[in-house]
Amino acid sequence: MRTINNLTVGWLDTSIGALLRDDANILSQFTSMLVTCLDSATDMPTTAVASRVIAQCPRCMFLGKGLVIPAVDFAKVADRFGLFTGFDEVWCFSETPKVMKPADFWIVSPSNIDQEDVPPALIPWMEQSGCRLGLGDGIGLNYATPDKNTAILLEEFIDSDE
Predict the structure, then answer these.
(1) In terms of CB atoms within 10 Å, which end of the chain has fewer, N or C?
(2) CA torsion sign, 116 to 154 to 13 to 44?
(3) Are 38 and 83 spatial neighbours (Cβ–Cβ below 8 Å)?
(4) Which class for 162: exposed (0-12), middle (13-18), buried (19 or more C-beta within 10 A)?
């Protein structure tokens, strides 16, 4: 893990799906999740699975090209609809997001945000939107957070799971 302009970023040998299956505490501190990539698809309103989520889960909604899922429903929706099989991206918020993620960056693997350049638009968007944690997986899990304690929780959770 490293810190760049008050943003802690890192890479872990895990996935969003594994994090959901194995932990309730890290993600349960948030209110809303913004899903911006599922299995490399980045336009949620055009995907069949996101359309089914919206049709069957009235508290979920689209925000731009993303899918907003209340944190209280997140694990259940993920399980019910078979979400998070790899190459996914999720952004966690303390309130319902109002600013959509720009299309000019993502943190989905195979990039390794811990060793490579942080996308230039990432830091200003996280500050502007109030995003508290970003997760992108594929080949490992990239994360970005303005809260170093959240990064430490993630790192400790993965270390204890090995």
Answers:
(1) C
(2) negative
(3) yes
(4) exposed
